[in-house]
Amino acid sequence: MGMERKRKVSLLDVVDKSKITKINSGGFSSSVASGSIIGGGPGINSWTGRPYSQRYYEILVKRRDLPVWHQKEEFLQVFKSNQTVILVGETGSGKTTQIPQFVLEAIDIKTTPNKRKKMMVACTQPRRVAAMSVSRRVAEEMDVTIGEEVGYSIRFEDCSSARTVLKYLTDGMLLREAMTDPLLERYKVIILDEAHERTLATDVLFGLLKQVLTNRPDLKLVVMSATLEAEKFQSYFDAPLMKVPGRLHPVEIFYTEEPESDYLDAAIRTVVQIHTRETPGDVLVFLTGEEEIEDACRKITKKVAKMGDKVGPVKVVPLYSSLSPAMQQKIFEPAPPPVKESGPAGRKIVVSTNIAETSLTIDGIVYVVDPGFAKQKVYNPRVRVESLLVSPISKASAHQRSGRAGRTQPGKCFRLYTEKSFRNDLQPQTYPEMLRSNLANTVLTLKKMGINDLVHFDFMDAPAPETLMRALEALNYLGAIDDDGNLTKLGEIMSEFPLDPQMSKMLVVSPEFNCSNEILSISAMLSVPNCFVRPREAQKAADEAKARFGHIDGDHLTLLNVYHAYKQNNEDPLWCYENFINQRVLKAADNVRQQLVRIMARFNLRLCSTDFNSRDYYINIRKAMVAGYFMQVAHLERTGHYLTVKDNQVVHLHPSNCLDHKPEWVIYNEDVQTNSNYIRTVTYICGEWIIDIAPHYYDLTNFPLCEAKRVLEKLYKKWKKESRNC
Ligand SMILES: Nc1ncnc2c1ncn2[C@@H]1O[C@H](COP(=O)(O)OP(=O)(O)O)[C@@H](O)[C@H]1O
Ligand SMILES: [Mg+2]
């Protein structure tokens, strides 16, 4: 393999038997097979009143074989006698799909829909893909239609109904629900899944639920996690810990002898080598994001195709968060059969982000390729920059990744880094998101829930004081909290939008600029993935198509043009195809827009537009953007580069921008850090507007010395003179 075999690690060794609650290795009650979970009679599904389908029984056989089934009785016992239970188990042991069903069985939910209120079971997922995929699977397992008894809820998409008893939802959505229903009264049991991920929302839910549990003795909490830091959860919640030993087969680990300079290239090469030299078994490759994954899929397919029938056929499937549900489901399809009978075996190759690390289990993986990177959020409170960075993973992540190779049989993991690097460079655990995020949104949410004393909030890992201070400061500049830290009326409305506070502010004030319709469209377009398609074989045509939408004043307005054109062309899929626009993304944007309109209506925020022929049409839109994003402004220095205002960070316009010149002042939507610092989605604004719209932020008495300050000083002088003349 061109890689020296270094050592053999049996992952079985990792499970510390002494700490495992005694396993009831005996049989389990087989009541489910007869369909009598809640008294529906043999063979009758009591949720629907219909006989179970053939498919139900087929899946049931597989389900009963999952490790959690062997501890079902024990789990139910611990569950019944405790308010909180911590459950840890290897990925693939059946936690996410089975435990919520066990819980449903245990709490005896009324089967008539109108009695189901306050009876629901919630199961949180950090990732939207997982919430969607798992709920579909569980609906299938329970032989019900998705959206009825089993549903899911992710930001901007609710697939549940009055009949729903089990809802998979992102942790962020449960947090939003807690804003209007602080005691989460519609739930009888809350399952916080993938707790080891330590996402921002899950961490906040930890602290929140601890309070809710004392106020609601009838509520139960199950915290589920992969085998990481379990004892930390146990002591934080002061609850019993139950372990489900997985059935992990030994995994051989290989390291490269030398560091790889291009991990993408190395990953593709390794996959092709596995396919040509290794025994049958599917491959899982970890990469960092959509573009890279699509690129790798194409290259692998092409390289294998070139080899002709010397090697077996491959099915290369991508997996990342913005993939459509139909594409996501492909990861569960079997490997392709050999082209000829007795020909070389086919192989499935899944190329995934770290979603496949613990969130989704793919059976049949025997080989894992781990380049050692993942996109991670990082936040620097000093310069207030939050960005997604491709960063080295932790040892714990590397361990999880290699474990994916040993789910169904002994496997191999190829780490595309040296053993020395693994030992010396990788940190033991990934830092919780709480410690590396901008907390403005979290603080706003907590304030809305009436939690004012953030310093004494029971965080599992408290954020840095500087980060909290930055969040409060930003909310204060936005007018969401007053100088005493109390939520203002504006802040209350802002908190109702499932958006970052700057965008919420822009929306809430947009009627004052007579352009809420347009700001809604822009916000919707900013809330969905990139809508421009750029196929490798038609890059020039795609760039030309994009240029046709280009607006000279900037990318936000270009997005608005795309949205308008899509609507003017009646959302026609053919039009999208011909113009290199991703129709699914536009559809999603339209859906987001409708939901935002509903929130606007709830607060009587006017829907209005400036006359399209007026010269103020675009000016008003750009001014409304300044009202929200005045903290994300960059100034063009005489040296030709941009400096972010106040923080003085050197940034470049992202190459994707559509401006035909470099304006003196720009407003931007996000920071992107690769080999240099970029600002992406930028629009040209005027210096006069920022001092007019956000004078409190552009107060020069606390402004660092820089070119922008001198320019602003002149503008202020001019402004004063003009107002005297009026
Ligand atoms: N959509 C699906 N299609 C087929 N199998 C699935 C699907 N979702 C989950 N499974 C299977 O269900 C099993 C249990 O998975 P899960 O409950 O997610 O485990 P855990 O949460 O412990 O990691 C795995 O073998 C997985 O492959
Ligand atoms: Mg799971």
From TrEMBL:
Its EC number is 3.6.4.13. One of its GO terms (cellular component) is spliceosomal complex. InterPro entries: AAA+_ATPase (IPR003593), DEAD-box_helicase_OB_fold (IPR011709), DEAD/DEAH_box_helicase_dom (IPR011545), DHX15_DEXHc (IPR044756), HA2_WH (IPR048333), Helicase-assoc_dom (IPR007502), Helicase_ATP-bd (IPR014001), Helicase_C-like (IPR001650). Keywords: ATP-binding, Helicase, Hydrolase, mRNA processing, mRNA splicing, Nucleotide-binding, Spliceosome. Gene3D superfamilies: 1.20.120.1080, P-loop containing nucleotide triphosphate hydrolases (3.40.50.300). It holds the Pfam family OB_NTP_bind. It catalyses: ATP + H2O = ADP + phosphate + H(+). It comes from the Eukaryota. Residues 76-246 form the Helicase ATP-binding domain. It is an enzyme of class 3 (hydrolase). This is RNA helicase.
